[in-house]
C-alpha cells in the first residue's frame, strides 16, 4: 500500500504521542510505587518509632582553662575520633584498618 506523506506524518505523530504518554504513565506509576514504600512500614508495623539509646554522660570538664588554639586542636582531634568511630561502625571493622587523612569543613 502506497501512503502519501501526510498519512505517514499523521501515523508518525500518533506514534510519538503514544510513546510520550506511555513514558509519562510509567514514570507516574514508578513514583507511586516509591511513595508506597514509605507507607508499608506504617501498615505492617503500626506507628512504631525506633527507640533511641539513653545518652551517655559527657566527660567532666578539666579544671584548667584551655586556650583558643589548644581548644581548636582538641576539637579537631575529637572530630577525627568521632568520624573514625562512625566509619568503623558503618563498615563493621576496627579503627585500625583505616586512617583519616583530612577533614574539610564546609
Describe this protein's structure.
- The structure is a single chain.
- This protein is mostly helical and 106 residues long.
- Helices cover 61% and strands 0% of the residues.
- It contains two helices and no strands.
- It starts with a helix and ends in a 15-residue tail after the last helix.
- The mean pLDDT is 80.
Distance between the termini: 68 Å
Instruction: Write down the overall geometry.
Output: elongated
Helices and strands: which structural class?
Answer: mainly alpha
Helix content: 55-70%
User: Whole-number radius of gyration?
Assistant: 30 Å
Number of helices: 2
Q: Please trace the helix and strand order, writing H or E for each element.
A: HH
Return the average pLDDT rounded to an integer. Answer: 80
Low-confidence stretches: none
Structure summary, number of beta strands: 0
Largest sheet: none
How much of the sequence lies in strands comes to under 5%
Descriptive terms for the model:
2 helices, about 110 residues, mainly alpha
Secondary-structure topology with pairs:
Blueprint: H1 5-45, H2 68-91
Quick overview of this protein structure:
With 106 residues, this protein is mainly alpha-helical. The protein is 61% helix and 0% strand.
Amino acid at each position: 500500500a502506497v501512503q502519501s506523506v501526510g498519512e505517514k506524518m499523521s501515523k508518525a505523530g500518533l506514534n510519538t504521542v503514544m510513546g510520550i504518554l506511555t513514558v509519562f504513565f510509567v514514570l507516574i506509576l514508578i513514583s507511586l510505587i516509591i511513595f508506597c514504600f514509605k507507607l508499608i512500614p506504617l501498615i505492617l508495623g503500626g506507628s512504631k518509632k525506633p527507640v533511641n539509646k539513653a545518652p551517655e554522660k559527657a566527660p567532666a570538664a578539666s579544671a584548667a582553662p584551655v586556650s583558643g588554639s589548644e581548644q581548636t586542636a582538641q576539637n579537631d582531634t575529637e572530630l577525627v575520633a568521632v568520624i573514625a568511630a562512625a566509619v568503623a561502625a558503618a563498615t563493621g571493622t576496627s579503627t585500625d584498618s583505616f586512617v583519616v587523612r583530612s577533614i574539610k569543613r564546609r
